[in-house]
Queue: 3 jobs
Job 1
Amino acid sequence: MRKVILILTIFVFSSVSVFAVSPTDAQNKLFGGAAKYQSHIEYTYPVKKRIEGLDFLGEVWNNDHSKEAVKSPYTRVRRGFGGIADLYSLTTKFKEQDGKIYYTIYLDKRNEPFLEKKLKKRDAEVKKIVNKYKKKSKYKRTKAIYTWITRNVKYDNSLTRRSSYNAIIDKRATCAGYAHLMCLMCEEAGIPARYVDGTAGGGGHAWVIVKVKGKWYYCDPTWDAGKKKWKYFLRGSKDFKKHKVQSGTKGHKIAKKKYK
């Protein structure tokens, strides 16, 4: 995406405006509001072309595992329930004025009862599994987590289970659920991990990058699920050409070759 300075105005309940000049800055402010389950969030910013508005939206929602965003309380909610779409309904609007295009996004809270209880249940299950592996090396911890996910989680053909909660409790999830769960389990085990969004196999897809021995590698637990021999575990950029990244790897240099 072309680098542009975006003057972003965010409204969360009150009429006080907050300004941000980057996706990460907007991300942390917006996710802070979402983590408090505020009923309405709205923001507007100017763009030169409509596609820039959509690119910015994708970067804000999908690249939430940056160093700054990991600290956000919303990250915990997002990984638990598969993304902002599970918490909020989202509508967008473009408006042309004075030769500029203004892009506005409206978020309205969905009713999700017992959210905190579900998150606690999920977190307890993650710790119970990961604690078995904590004395292993980072590579062995990563492999053990990948083994657990690919053996225990089945793909959700209804496409309704998109969260780490669905993956670990229901044992069924879409690619987003697989990826969110792997990020969650890796970070519980002390292994840096990031959620990656893009395309593969002719459609939208999600996978993960993990850091082992100072290098970042791709992992796709969805495509390795149920397989005896893995094809997508700790792969480098030269071994992962079926996947096209849209967001999630910025600032993280991927190893060229698979882990050995």
Job 2
Amino acid sequence: MLATGYATKRGRRAALVHYDAVHRKLRPRAGSRMTAILSGGAIPEVFDYRVRLEPEGAFIGTLNEDFAIESLPGDIFQLGNTSWRILQIGNGVVRVADAQGQPAFDAFLAGRGAVAQRRDERGRVEAARRRRRAAARAGAAAKGR
């Protein structure tokens, strides 16, 4: 990228430095200083996997890279209003089939595994925890008066 440039969606971009082989000098190209200051050298870590329906190959949507990498073939997740069963995870593409309404893992609760599938149970536990907290606060407030 520094010496040979790089390709973008809008075409080829110039290199940020130029090596003068005759004078054996390395010099910056115009604007490279501002590029270095603004970008900080960070590499974006955002990557989405395309979700394709098999066997048609129709585009369904996208999944976060972390979710796609941590998933296994056979896992069921929900995207939109439909549950999908993962058939294959490949080069930036997750191939899926309709899961026929089976309960799905919530794709947006990464790392929660089976807990995300038990929404009713989790809701009851959370409600009980909130009731206990409210009662404890009310008791503490009554003692403080």
Job 3
Amino acid sequence: MPIKRIKLSPVVKRTRQEAERATKIATKQFNRARRTLKKTFAKKKNQRRAVVAVLATAAVLSSVGAYSIHANAQQDRHYLRTQLNNRDVELDERKQRSQTLQESLQAVQQQKAETDAQLQKKAQEEAELKRQIDELAKQVSAKREREKQAQVKVASAKPEKAAPRKSTGGAGNCDAWLKAAGVSDMGNAKELISRESGCNPGAVNSDSGACGVAQELPCGKSGCGGDGACQVRWMNDYVESRYGSWSAAVAHHDAKNWY
């Protein structure tokens, strides 16, 4: 790189100014001696003194000039050496700062690469999670569609025709059917039957397709057809086998709204 022009120090400038003043004084003395010599030659007196004076003046002038030049040269060399040393120190500091910045840049680049890798991994995980969610949504939608189709099939299915079972109370009202079925807890039995079907052997739920006194699902599973006494007897067997008693079945219905 090009070296800038170095300015002289105040000490060097002052030394040069003093040397210039001394040179001017010596020059004036030399000129005065020369004029004196001319006058002396003209008068032909003191010729030797004039020559000595001129030679002495020239010697003084030469000594002053040589000393000034030597002093200026030493000052210049010292100042230039100091400036070069300072420049070397500054260059070393710049190299150190440059190396530090380079290391910092490498650390930042490495951290950026790690962050990019983490972001890419997170994006892949999010994409996989989204795919799983979409898959689950499809499965749920398909399951709902199958359930809907099953409900439609149940609602549209006709009750199975079965041979009527012989009943001790095939004709009559609900109380007679309950007595014929051997129901001991008449109160809870009548309450549950009233909630489900109103003791109507031909009752059909339009939503689920359940039918009969017991609201059989699927409809016709008892095999009683429209025989009310048969349906009540089947319902009594179902309640006692599942809940143990009519009161327990009513309690379950109170909590779940179904039995």
